[in-house]
């Protein structure tokens, strides 16, 4: 509520006159006791403040939210008969919007501006790019293992970097070029290891041609995802400066505007019959899948909040390094939870991809320091909202 509506229900007592001292005292005592009762204990306030300003806790929270999002997405789309990707993404968006709206009503989110139709029209093309990004992402996860998916995601960084060179006057340093070479090498090694595993029958299929066709489909969707993700990030960077969006505005408009698009796509391309839903949600795992779908919508909010929290209590340098280091546990989670083949090639690809992420993050840190030290031209990057930074990080992780 706004302040004016609150003022309508406030009874202001006169400072002096109108009441005798002995009549005023009992009321003051009761009011004071009520106010004292509503104030949290100092010890609780200090404990919450210590947690809120704890850098290691913010890093762990960001890593766990990011890892859990990838693992849950892989779990949901890994069903034998799964074919409801658009429906799944619709549920994610609805859960996210519901949580944001409820948090706003409860006062947990205070910097979310009211819905503006003009801003929605300008942002709608970006939301379409987001639909392409998240749909191709789930399709790639359907056909590829989590480690391979994570490794190939690094290629998005290369496309975005050269897109910034073309459209925003960015630059690529020699150290960044080294990291790009390592990213490409890790992807080649990962693909080679996957092909060898498919031929050896490590994916549970005795027919190597079937396994190879699955991998080829995964690589095709992964290539489309790299292009869609780069288009989304670059397009968002171009438009967001004109929109003056705050921390939660980007997430709110993204999810709200994608709901009708996803619903239409699901209705036109997916089978909503009872028989098909029974195949996609088998009774043995139905409750877990529904819980995973709901959690994945909430996880998007967790990632955004934890990203902003990590940046606030640490630094952008630490945040960049955490994003690079986080790729290792995400890849390992695929080996642990989904029994991806563990071979010399797959482990080598994960390690090379991990090193490439660290080298890239270090190159960005050095580039940022150099731009700050330069006094000739204002070369600092435009400020982005925390949700935009987290969206970009999620796209690159």
Tell me what you see in this structure.
The protein has 397 residues and is an all-alpha fold. It has one domain (64-396). The chain contains 16 helices and no strands. It has helices at 3-7, 21-38, 42-52, 55-77, 85-105, 117-143, 146-167, 174-200, 208-243, 249-269, 274-280, 286-313, 316-325, 327-337, 344-373, 386-396. Helix 4 packs across helix 14 and helix 6 (117-143) runs antiparallel to helix 9.
Strand content: under 5%
Mean pLDDT equals: 79
Total domains, how many? 1
The percent range for helix content is over 70%
Q: Tell how many strands the DSSP assignment holds.
A: 0
Radius of gyration, in angstroms, nearest whole number: 25 Å
The unreliable regions are 1-37, 375-391
Question: Main sheet, how many strands, which sense, barrel?
Answer: none
Coarse morphology: globular
Number of helices: 16
SSE run: HHHHHHHHHHHHHHHH
Class by alpha and beta content: mainly alpha
How far apart lie the N and C ends? 38 Å
């Amino acid at each position: 509520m706004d302040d004016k509506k609150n003022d309508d229900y406030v009874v202001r007592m006169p400072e002096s006159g109108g009441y005798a001292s002995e009549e005023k005292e009992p009321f003051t005592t009761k009011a004071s006791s009520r106010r004292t009762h509503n104030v949290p204990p100092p010890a609780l306030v200090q404990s919450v403040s210590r947690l809120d300003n704890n850098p290691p806790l913010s890093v762990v929270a960001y890593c766990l939210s990011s890892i859990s999002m990838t693992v849950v997405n892989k779990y949901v789309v890994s069903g034998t008969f799964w074919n409801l990707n658009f429906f799944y993404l619709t549920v994610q968006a609805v859960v996210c919007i519901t949580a944001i709206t409820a948090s706003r009503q409860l006062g947990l989110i205070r910097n979310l501006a009211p819905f503006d139709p003009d801003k929605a029209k300008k942002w709608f093309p970006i939301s379409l790019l987001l639909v392409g990004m998240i749909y191709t992402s789930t399709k790639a996860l359907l056909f590829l293992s989590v480690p391979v998916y994570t490794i190939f995601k690094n290629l998005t960084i290369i496309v975005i970097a050269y897109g910034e060179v073309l459209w925003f006057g960015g630059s690529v340093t020699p150290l960044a070029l080294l990291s790009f070479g390592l990213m490409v090498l890790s992807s080649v090694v990962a693909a080679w290891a996957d092909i060898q595993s498919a031929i050896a029958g490590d994916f549970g299929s005795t027919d190597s041609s079937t396994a190879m066709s699955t991998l080829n489909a995964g690589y095709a969707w992964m290539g489309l995802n790299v292009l869609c993700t780069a288009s989304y990030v670059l397009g968002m960077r171009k438009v967001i400066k004109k929109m003056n969006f705050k921390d939660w505005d980007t997430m709110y408009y993204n999810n709200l505007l994608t709901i009708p698009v996803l619903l239409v796509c699901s209705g036109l391309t997916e089978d909503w019959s009872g028989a098909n839903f029974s195949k996609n949600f088998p009774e043995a795992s139905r409750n877990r899948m529904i819980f995973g779908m709901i959690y994945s919508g909430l996880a998007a909010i967790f990632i955004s909040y934890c990203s902003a929290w990590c940046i606030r209590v640490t630094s952008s340098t630490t945040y960049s390094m955490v994003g690079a280091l986080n790729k290792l546990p995400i890849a390992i989670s695929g080996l642990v939870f989904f029994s991806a083949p563990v071979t010399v090639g797959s482990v080598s690809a994960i390690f090379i991809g991990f090193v490439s992420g660290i080298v890239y993050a270090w190159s960005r840190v050095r580039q940022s320091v150099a731009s700050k030290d330069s006094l000739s031209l204002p070369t600092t990057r435009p400020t982005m909202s925390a949700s935009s930074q987290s969206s970009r990080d999620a796209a690159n992780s």
